[in-house]
Write a structure and sequence with these properties.
Blueprint (H helix, E strand, L loop, with lengths): L2 E3 L5 E3 H19 L2 H8 L3 H8 L2 H26 L4 H18 L2 H10 L4 H27 L8 H17 L1 H7 L6 H16 L2
Antiparallel strand pairs: 1-2
Helix pairs in contact: 1-4, 1-6, 4-5, 4-7, 5-7, 5-8, 5-10, 8-10
């Protein structure tokens, strides 16, 4: 792993830098993000970051790859290690998704920012990360349809029910807690929401 030298005789890993970059892009969007502010927070030379990652757009792509590739590996692993029944496999993938979103809510926030400003960055997110991630769950869902066990669900419907429905509970725990202060924690509610979604899909 590359180490970036800091003026204060400290080092910061690429992982640390990209984690913070992903959070900044997720919080304020691409246009609002400042590479100079990122460098200030980490006490890293501005030129050093440009030498390592290139332009602001290249930094965005590196930060997005850092976050979403980890999610893709997580979902693929959940599918590979799930029981053979497609319903069990679908549930395992969706549960792992909300758990991953709870651990890194910046992923949902960065999707929301780019979806409200459609352009090349949203195209990149969809083509490289969102569609392949959806394909993991979609394969199990289509098997359930073929077996006559599930209704046909359009891809967008499943994405928004899971990503912004159950995923909203996982990624916005403070808001979820205000609605349900005496109910289980938001991640438990997100898992329960997945089961509710699945019951609605099944015939």
């Amino acid at each position: 792993m590359t180490l970036l030298a800091l003026p204060a005789h400290r080092t910061v890993t690429d992982t640390t830098l990209l984690d913070l970059a992903l959070d900044i892009f997720a919080d304020v969007g691409f246009e609002g993000a400042s590479v100079r502010e990122l460098c200030r927070r980490l006490n890293v030379s501005h030129n050093l970051v440009h030498e390592r990652f290139g332009s602001k757009d290249q930094l965005w792509q590196a930060a997005v790859a850092h976050g979403f590739q980890e999610l893709a590996v997580t979902l693929a692993s959940a599918a590979a290690h799930a029981p053979p029944d497609p319903l069990d496999r679908l549930r395992a993938v969706l549960i792992r998704y909300v758990e991953a979103i709870a651990a890194r809510p910046a992923l949902i926030r960065i999707i929301n920012h780019e979806a409200t400003h459609p352009g090349p960055r949203l195209d990149h997110l969809y083509r490289v990360y969102l569609r392949p991630a959806h394909n993991v769950s979609d394969a199990a869902l289509r098997l359930l349809e073929d077996e006559g066990r599930a209704h046909h669900i359009p891809a967008a419907t499943l994405h928004f029910l899971v990503g912004h429905g159950a995923g909203g509970l996982a990624s916005l725990p403070d808001l979820a807690g205000r609605f349900s202060p005496t109910d289980p924690d938001p991640l438990t509610q997100a898992r329960d929401a997945i089961d509710l979604i699945l019951r609605g899909i099944l015939i």
